[in-house]
Amino acid sequence: MMCQAAVCCENSESCIHHVPVFEKLSPDQKELLTSIAKSAPFTKGSYVFHEGEQSESLYVLSHGLVKLTKIADNGREHILRFLFPGDFFGQFALLQDKQHYASAEVLEPSVICRLHKDDFRPLLESHPQLSYSFLLAMSDQLQQADEWAGAMHVMDVEQRLAMMIVHYWRKQSADGYRVILPAAKKELSSMIGTTPETLSRKLTQWVNDGIIHMKLRTLDILAPDRLIELSTQ
């Protein structure tokens, strides 16, 4: 179901004006982006795109939760990362005419803005500040991916878990010290290279140590400095 024009306009504006990748642009540049952004709601369980489909747009998550997944050679789904409000994805469509390397599944009702490459590329070419801001955002994203890849090789399970929780906390910082885990323990444990049982034991240990309080997927951080310390040891 497509949103009404006024709602789409409002959501497109929020995608442009309130996300880190565009925050340093001038008001005029933001208005230019708003004019080409198309906003639409997505229901839980739907897909923004599937692995192997032609990549044609940059997407910005305005509201909700999305996960990027890739199917391994053995047919199992591998979670690459979760996307939170303000995150962008599908950016390789702007640089190369390629197929999507992963699928984007909507995990809860979401609003997503789309900037088609035929509209966005000319703006990048004619506005150096926009190109620079976008390049910095892509660089940050690649750096995070490199840091996570390195953590998988040199950090122990507790450090990797702490690093993941701190990342989700920063993505959800509007909720103070509360983190809503984006997936079940089975999926999260797979992302950090451990078992659900080990992940549960580590979380229980943190509860006993007074670092967190946890109920189902809701985690309240009681000792943020200690959690950050665990993630950087």
Automatic annotation (TrEMBL):
PANTHER family: CRP FAMILY TRANSCRIPTIONAL REGULATORY PROTEIN (PTHR24567), LISTERIOLYSIN REGULATORY PROTEIN (PTHR24567:SF28). Keywords: Activator, DNA-binding, Transcription, Transcription regulation. It holds the Pfam family HTH_Crp_2. It comes from the Bacteria. It comes from Paenibacillus zeisoli. Residues 155-225 form the HTH crp-type domain. SMART domains: cNMP, HTH_CRP. GO terms for cellular component: cytosol. GO terms for molecular function: DNA binding; DNA-binding transcription factor activity. This is Crp/Fnr family transcriptional regulator. The keyword 4Fe-4S does not apply.
